[in-house]
Structure formats: structure tokens, C-alpha cells
Amino acid sequence: MSQVAIVTGAARGVGLAIAQRLGSAGRTVYMLDVLEADLREAAGKLGHDGIQAIPMAIDLASQEQIADLPKRIGQCFEDVSILVNNAGIAPIASDGKPILGPEIALEQWERVLTINLTAPFRLMQICIPAMRRRGWGRIINISSRAGRSPGGSSGADYVTSKSGLLGLTRAFAHDVAASGITVNSIAPGRIDTPMGMSSSEDLLRLVRAKIPVARIGQPEEVAALVAFLAGEESGFITGAVIDINGGALMI
């Protein structure tokens, strides 16, 4: 059974590591991102490694562009069996600190919720019919430790979007389980990515000090977990949230 995977936010960081891991296992990977130049460069490097990686520039804040995705992918859209909703934004102030709830502008709030929560909702709606026809599908939503417990360097908009993604995961998992589709969330802690390392060095030192394994996570570690949830062996896991944070949050 040929498998096509869609990975959002795939130009760099965790999304790129996920695309590489899924592609290395023989899947055709559609890499979605708004960073078109970075995306094409990343897909080109994966292609040199023998991975079938197709870059597709998209602004997940645009409902029209999301709705047009099946047409852009074409006939291969019927083979979509893996969806990884990884893309997300976390606006911070000029001093690198989170913008606290009382100071968040409505425009920022709506943009964060649109990209981090509404876009995954719409992509799941769009991809599930093809998965149902195949009788098999894997959806993995990348939430965050911030969605499990607020605080740290995350603003209220980001926390709310990632908490909502956990609820959305459970709701969809319940609704599509009988169709052979699983829907799960991963909640990473601090990961070595451009977003994860954008805080000040002082804050990063504090973060490391609070992680029991005494280091920051790597994108490849998240990708390995995604690969497991995207495989056959994970078929009895659905509606779950799996923490990957070095022990920084134990629930």
C-alpha cells in the first residue's frame, strides 16, 4: 500500500526532521510551509538522499489555500494516509518575552488560533475522507508542553491554541476510530529548533536547569515518536497525548 504523508511546517526544525524520517521509510512526503525558499532548499536536500519530497508553499492562515490543497496535490491526494500537523507560531515581544494575555492584540490572538488550531482542524477534515476510503490513516498533531501546563515562555494565545489542539485530537480520535484512523498528539518540551532556541541565553539556562535529563531535546527525537505513531504497530493507540520533554513535566 503506497503511502503519502503531509507534514506542515516542514521547512526546518521538527517538521523537517519528521519529513526526513517518514520519507526515509519510503513514504512520499508533501512538505508544506510558508517559508518558500527554505522549503525548496530542504526538499532538495532530501531529494538528494533519495527521499520523494515535494515542497508546497502554503499560508495556513488562508482558508482558501487550505481548501485548494487536494487540487494542488492532484491524484496522489487519494493516497494520503498520514497527516502531521506540526506548523505553529508563538509571537513574542521584542525583548524575547511572551506577550501576556492582557496585552495580546485581538489580531495576534486570531492569527495564532487560526494557524495553530483552525488549520489542523481543516486539514483533518480534508484528509479524513481519503483515509476512510482506504480504511487506514494516521494523524499526529504536534501540541506542546505549554498545552499541558501554562507558564514558561509561552503566551496565552499559544497556550490556548495548543491546549485546544489536545481537545481537538480527542474529539476526532473518537469520531474516526471505527474507520481505521488513529489521531494522537505529541507534546514536546523545549526542542533545539529556531523557535525553541529564540529565547535569551539566560532563559535557556533556566530551562535546562529544570529538565531532569539536563539537556534540550532534538528534532530527531520528536520525529522518531511521530514515525512510531504513523506506523502499523501503533494501531491500538488513539486519542492519546504523549509527552516528550526530558521529564520537565510529569503528569
From TrEMBL:
The keyword Oxidoreductase applies. Gene3D superfamilies: NAD(P)-binding Rossmann-like Domain. It comes from the Bacteria. InterPro entries: NAD(P)-bd_dom_sf, SDR, SDR_fam. Its EC number is 1.1.1.100. Keywords: Oxidoreductase. GO terms for molecular function: 3-oxoacyl-[acyl-carrier-protein] reductase (NADPH) activity. Pfam families: adh_short_C2. It is an enzyme of class 1 (oxidoreductase). Transmembrane segments: none annotated. Belongs to the short-chain dehydrogenases/reductases (SDR) family. This is 3-oxoacyl-[acyl-carrier protein] reductase. The lineage of its organism: Bacteria, Pseudomonadati, Pseudomonadota, Alphaproteobacteria, Hyphomicrobiales.
